[in-house]
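Hi,

Apologies if this is the wrong queue. I'm a grad student, and the batch job for dihydropyrimidinase from Polypedilum vanderplanki produced an output file that my downstream script rejects. I'm not sure whether the problem is my script or the file. Here is the sequence I used:
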Amino acid sequence: IDYTLWRDLLFDRKSVKIRYLRMSNNIYIKNACVVNHDTIQENVSIYVENGVIKFIGTECDFPIPTNIEVIDASGKYVIPGGIDPHTHFELEFGGTFAVDDFYQGTCAAVAGGTTTIIDFVIPKKGQSILEAYEIWRKRADSKVVCDYGLHCAITWWSVEVNKDMEILAKEKGISSFKMFMAYKGLFMLDDSELYETFERCRDIGALAQVHAENGDIIAKNTKKLLENGVKGPEGHQLSRTEDVEAEATNRACVIAHQTNCPLYVVHVMSISAAEEVARARERWGKNFIFGETLAAALGASGEEYYDKCWHHAAAHVLSPPLRPRKETREVLMKMLANDDLQSTGSDNCTFNKKQKELGLDDFSKIPNGVNGVEDRMSVIWEKGGGTDIFCAAKIFNLYPKKGSLTVGADADIVIWNYKDTRTISVKTHHHACDFNIFEGMVCHGVPEIVIVGGKICVRDGKLSVTPGSGKFLPRNAFNTFIFKS
Ligand code: URP
Ligand code: ZN
Ligand code: ZN
Ligand code: ZN
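Support response: The file is valid. Your script probably expects a header line. Output copied below for reference.
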């Protein structure tokens, strides 16, 4: 069934439209404790009509229709749906494809209370970035069950790429570009290319993003470790140590400063790299340098690479890796809380045990990536007692349509039951993958009801979604939160 077509047909016919909206799109939430970034409103009502929030408050000056869905939110928080600014659904990596596709990936997101994701278009070296964008749109549009945006990676540099970046920013709604300082020979750019891409981002009003690790050092270390017989997943951590991440983070911030281009450092995994972000923010501005950490960094430990079960260890391989310093999780959480870091992504890029086996005899061939899109909100809540939806919405120019519960915002709403608990497990998760790096974690706080675009998609632990019901979110360049005139 082509659900998109079916939905559009319904909307074309007025009489059916009304029936459809009655069925699923009009919701009244009463006794709500509404949590926004700047306020907590107790005992208010929310009225949702046609996928948008039409009223929030105590006294509505227009009649609320009767015979609509009524939700009693007493004793729970009502929060904006989560935004995961970093996913890789069905990404080709290391000769195989990530198993969470845009359907399964967004299902997992919604099940966990995340109602917007931003994925990365990653063109191959030499491939047109416009062509890669079209491929990602084609993959995603018919499958997504929540709204999504796209960043684009710049994996090679040419006059054509330079030109096409502007087309993406001006015409296609892509206003953030990720550059890799690692994955030598695959995606990595050198410093002069970084300089040029940053200048281009600045000129077209886009946010530059970096994967900050020193790819040259990693290549040397990998060769040395393999020659010395270190072949297991622990070699992944040993080849790309904390200082290798911190050095690249500082270098990226310096290039951002030199080119006067705002910068967002993705997946900050170590204390040292986070300190570089914090220092650069002090020196060059809080609306100029931003840092994102991952659910994995907050909820999993670097000791896993030494697990005697190879599959267990390999399942934790992502880049930059989890760190051996025990205090890492706690310190990164504190740095999020005090605004040294600004957001938490998942970097969801899942591979099954069989796929991870591509690196059985050589850690550098283990496909990189872990789960997280489903459990990100729970992990943040469990470890820090809060969420960071608002910052991602502002940084990526989605606010206040996303990341806020206000009149006119999209009705992406989570009824968060902070008294309930759930235990994370591969047996119950909504991912396509056969491992969960947060296995056994007991989380206080459950997304009891998840409303996506005005439709109840999660209730009583059951997911009810329609492939293709999500929309692509074009994000304008020259975001006023970052680019001050
Ligand atoms: O290990 C990771 N992070 N895999 C996805 C690609 C990337 O670098 O974000
Ligand atoms: Zn990366
Ligand atoms: Zn195991
Ligand atoms: Zn990533």
